[in-house]
């Protein structure tokens, strides 16, 4: 059970990093709402 939990938490962490990377490099299509990014997310920008 513990090994499965450790593997699953690694997948969740990887998914969170991927979503944050995608969110940093895109802008909201609606002008009303742009969600706030976590601290340190600026390091993941491509430009």
Structural account:
This protein has 47 residues and is mainly α. Helices cover 49% and strands 0% of the residues. The chain is built from one helix and no strands. It has one helix spanning 2-24. It is elongated.
**What is the strand tally?**
0
Terminal residue distance: 42 Å
Q: Please, how many domains? A: 1
> What spatial form do the alpha-carbon principal axes imply?
elongated
Specify Rg, calculated over alpha carbons. 14 Å
Mean pLDDT equals 78
Structural class: mainly alpha
Q: What is the overall number of helices?
A: 1
Largest sheet: none
- Helix and strand string, N-terminal first? H
How much of the sequence is in beta strands? under 5%
Low-confidence stretches: none
Percent helix, as a range, is 40-55%
Question: What is this structure's SSE topology?
Answer:
Layout: H1 2-24
Organism: Lutispora thermophila DSM 19022
InterPro entries: AgrD
Protein name: Cyclic lactone autoinducer peptide
Question: What are the defining features of this structure?
Answer:
47 residues; mainly alpha; 49% helix; elongated
Brief summary of the model shown:
It is built from 1 helix and no strands. With 47 residues, the protein is mainly alpha-helical. The chain has one domain (1-44).
């Amino acid at each position: 059970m513990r090994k499965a939990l450790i593997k699953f938490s690694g997948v969740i962490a990887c998914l969170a990093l991927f979503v944050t990377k995608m969110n940093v490099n895109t802008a909201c299509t609606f002008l009303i709402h742009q969600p706030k990014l976590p601290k340190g997310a600026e390091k993941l920008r491509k430009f």
